[in-house]
Amino acid sequence: MPAQLLEVALPVPLPRTFSYRHEPAQESARRRAAVGDLVVVPFGRRREVTGLVTGAGPLPDGVTAHEGVALRPVTRIHPPEYRIAGERLRLARWLAEYYMLPLGEVVPLFHPPAPGTAARGDAEDAAAYPDVDAGPVVLTVDQRAALAVAAAHLDRGAFGAVLLHGVTGSGKTEVYLALIERALAKGRSALYLLPEIALTPQTLSRIHARFGERAAAIHSGMSAGRRCQVHEAAARGELQVVVGPRSALFAPLPDLGVIVVDEEHESSYKQDEKPRYHARHAALVRGREAKAVVVLGSATPDLESVANARAGRFDLCRLPDRLGGGGLPPVRIVDMRGTGAPDGLSPVLEDALEQTLAAGRQGILYYNRRGFARALQCRDCGEVQECPNCDIALTYHLRPRRLLCHYCGHARGVPEHCPACTVGSFLPGGGGTEKIELHLHGRFPEARVLRLDHDTTRRRGSHRRILAAFAGGEADILVGTQMVAKGHHFPRVDLVGVLAADDGLGMPDFRSAERSFQLLTQVAGRAGRTGAGQVVFQTWRPEDPVIQAASRHDFDGFVAGEMPVREALGYPPARRLVRLMVSARRLGEAESAARELAGALRANLGRGRLEVLGPAPAVFPRLQDRFRVQLLLKGTLRTAERAWLADCLRALKESRRGVEVGHDVDPVNVY
Q1: What is the bridge-based pairing of β-strands 18-22 and 65-66?
Q2: Are 670 and 632 in contact (CB under 8 A)?
Q3: Which of 37, 189, 371, 449 has the fewest Cβ atoms surrounding its Cβ within 10 A?
Q4: How many CB atoms lie within 10 A of CB 543?
């Protein structure tokens, strides 16, 4: 076979492709490369990378260079299962354009790490998740109506977007499964996205019960070999349903008919490192390109989704009632002002927990702080133990006993005396899930307590083990961070207690009220799913409108108060945002580069439709030993403006050694 000249997009921050030669006769598969193939190529002196073929043509005999550069040979071509073509290739090109990145930098989203290692993959050795469903489900009138709206798009073979707004426990999952079942009956496939790996075991158990071996999960907690197995099986049509967090969106399912984005409001659908894409937005684009129906479901939809439904871009379906006729659990607000409560639990919450345990039922305690204490402060001189790399206090952990920075990972032992004054001892300040767990062991010695947070879920399969144990009745109390708030169905839970319900309201971010309302409403929704439930909010701000609205489960009331504020300030969904971040080892370098960037933006973009805010120090001015300055660009960027901005950011970075310049399109936070 004649040699080929290939143009390859590589995962490097350069807006260009790279030329290579391919000798098909030297390939063990003896096949020619085509646009969309993944290839392994040499790059630099000792590095091999995986890239995407964007162009392929004949290479005349004797030609060894292209545009004055010697052509290096392709190392190998990955099997056809890894080809990026059709609607997936169109999605990749959209991601690159919208998020202002070279195409090569989005390619890693579309394949597992170490592609081609499926032969060394391990099967899923995971314990079965307990069946918590009551039995065969008959859809309610509201569920059938929602299913009909979504199925109409599927039956037409046309793209459609549906916002399924259902209160916690209203049966959104059954609507999803019924829709997927209809898609599979038509010979089409389905993606089921979840915001967290922690939610996968329960949902996958239900999907396996319905669809058997036609369904599988894929996520970063699996081995590379197992992820390759799932990827290849999906590409060959051996799987019809893939479940997982945002990375599952890119699975190569043929003839995709349904995409479910469960808990669509969750910020974890936004990747916080490059490429900083939002899986909800990308799911809508993939659905459009595949002519699939996309269902966004939540009890507390994102305000941007609400605005899209009001504008008619999404069909809105509601599930206003819980299954079984039970109402949402009543919420009691406990004013913590002046109470002290050194261990975090008020007498009201302790009494409620005691009654719950006496009745043989379960309780969940939510505290969005991990560790034993938020800070260690010297009793004598007042010095706080801080991270040497970040302007952040170190968190005190007991097991293992150490001081830890939750931003850069710096860890060190706990000194016997204050390093500043050399004589003082330490006073732990604030609390965390580890402290609450220890307090529960002392206060309720007979109770079986589990903790679900980042510290207890580091090992593979730990999420499943903890959640399965609690769902199976092997524990009485589950204490944890945000992981306990998201989508779990625990029929035995009668009580939910929220410690520091106002914790997120003080964040200097335009979404702080929305995020707090969503978390409170979601965690409250874990209580009373099969009986009488109750919720306790402990707060130092009992009159806050967010606390009040969440205590009434009043989503519409919250939106009525919050949406005008967003519109008045020009924040999403009223206007789009791009966050620009400049960082350097020296504060002056970061500030100087940010001022230069601000001047260029105002001269070229900051007129009329677009508004430039800043530069200003980030909320956390120094992280990982770098000073950070940020700017905000308000308004919708056109294609040419995106291209100009990408070039501007690249030029600034290249002209200032040691300065990092990043951007975040549609940021979910601005701190």
Answers
A1: unpaired
A2: yes
A3: 449
A4: 9
Once rounded to an integer, what is the mean pLDDT over residues 291-300? Answer: 97
Task: Name which of 78-92, 189-203, 243-257 the model is least confident about.
Answer: 189-203
CB environment 440-459: b (16+ within 10 A), e (fewer): beeebeebbbbbbbebbbee
The residue among 589, 618, 613 whose CA lies nearest residue 601 is: 613
Instruction: Give the single-character DSSP code of 326.
Output: P
Distance between CA atoms of 164 and 166, rounded to whole angstroms? Answer: 6
- 403 phi, psi to nearest 5 deg: -105, 135
Q: CA-CA-CA-CA torsion for 43, 47, 50, 53, nearest 10 degrees?
A: 20
How far is the C-alpha of 378 from the C-alpha of 281, rounded, in Å? 48
Structure tokens at 166: 């259902």
Q: What are phi and psi of 227, to 5 degrees?
A: -65, -35
In angstroms, how far is CA 547 from the centroid of its own chain? 25
**Spatial distance between the Cα atoms of 466 and 479, rounded to a whole number of angstroms:** 11
Q: Which amino acid is at 441?
A: H
207-211, 351-355, 372-376, 619-623 — most confident range: 351-355
262 strand-pairing partners? 297
Q: Can you list the positions of beta strands (E) in 182-276?
A: 189-193, 215-217, 241-244, 256-262
Could you say which DSSP state residue 387 is in? -
Q: What span, in angstroms and rounded, lies between the C-alpha atoms of 86 and 629?
A: 40
Q: For the stretch 357-372, what's the b/e string if a residue is b when 16 or more beta carbons lie within 10 angstroms of its beta carbon?
A: beeebbbbbbbbbbbb
Residue 159 has pLDDT above 70, yes or no: yes
Q: Map tokens 């007498």 to a residue.
A: 347
Instruction: Enumerate residues 6+ apart whose C-beta is below 8 A from 481.
Output: 366, 367, 368, 369, 370, 433, 452, 453, 454
Contact of 632 with 613, CB cutoff 8 Å: yes
Model confidence at 126, in pLDDT bands (50, 70, 90)?
A: very low
**374: which 2 tokens?**
């938020």
31 or 542, which is more confident: 542
Domains of the chain: 4-85+93-104 (3.40.1440), 139-323 (3.40.50.300), 328-371+431-568 (3.40.50.300), 577-665 (3.30.70.600)
Calculate the alpha carbon distances from 39 to 9, 30, 115, 144 in Å. 10, 14, 10, 47
Please tell me the distance from the alpha carbon of residue 129 to that of residue 464, in angstroms, as a whole number: 8
Angle at 186 between CA 184 and CA 191, to 5 degrees: 40
- Which residues pair with residue 631 across a beta bridge? 580
Q: In what order do the strands lie in the sheet with 449-452?
A: 331-335, 534-539, 493-498, 362-366, 477-480, 449-452
